[in-house]
Hints:
Blueprint: H1 2-29, H2 32-53, H3 61-79
Helix pairs in contact: 1-2
Amino acid sequence: MLSHMVNVLGILLIAAAISLVEVPYMWKKGLKKELWLFSILLFVAVGISCAKALHWLIPTPLDWITAVYRPFSDFLTYMGLIR
């Protein structure tokens, strides 16, 4: 468990270092929209990276596609149109 926490701490430190480099530049140049987008994307990336470091199950886009099309596929199988 300690190694997982070290991994999460490393991810957070790298994200902080990236922010310390990028945020002042964007702030000085007045790039407010870009700063918001950067912050949101960095937050999402850190969240996913921490979840992977803790070995949490993260669904892939294929899982969502399968969930959407499964009823249609089951219907076609029931009708005998596919096997």
